[in-house]
Design a protein that fits this description.
This protein has 109 residues and is an alpha+beta fold. It has helices at residues 2-5, 16-27, 31-38, 42-51, 53-56; strands spanning 77-83, 92-98, 104-108. Among the domains are: 14-56, Arc Repressor Mutant, subunit A; 77-108, no CATH class.
């Protein structure tokens, strides 16, 4: 009975590095996650992420200074607008933060 239930052929399983690369192509995990999930070295995990063309546009931009902070409330605000297509009609979110009090104001437009 075991012979009848056994597969007629076996598919070769790719090595761990290839599995990690294929997984990254689908899910775009970070190097840290690839290292944890597949047991890769830091160099191998980083090279997989660095070779991914989709991840290159998401690379971190190094910060060269300190964000300014106001000396009193309502003096310096930082703002950002992002597009969220799943929101439908109101698909832009505008967020502003007062750097002194950390007061947050967010609206969907």
């Amino acid at each position: 009975a075991d012979c009848l239930a056994a597969p007629a052929w076996t598919v070769p399983v790719p090595d761990v590095s290839t599995q990690a690369r294929l997984s990254h192509e689908s899910f775009h995990q970070s190097a840290r996650m690839l290292r944890r999930q597949f047991g890769l070295t830091w160099d191998t995990a980083r090279s997989i992420v660095q070779m991914c063309p989709g991840c290159q546009c998401l690379a971190r931009i190094p910060q060269t200074g300190v964000d300014p902070q106001g000396e009193k409330a309502l003096q310096i605000w930082q703002s950002d607008v992002t597009h969220i297509g799943e929101f439908g009609k109101e698909k832009y979110v505008h967020v502003s933060i007062d750097t002194f009090s950390r007061a947050l104001w967010a609206t969907a437009e």
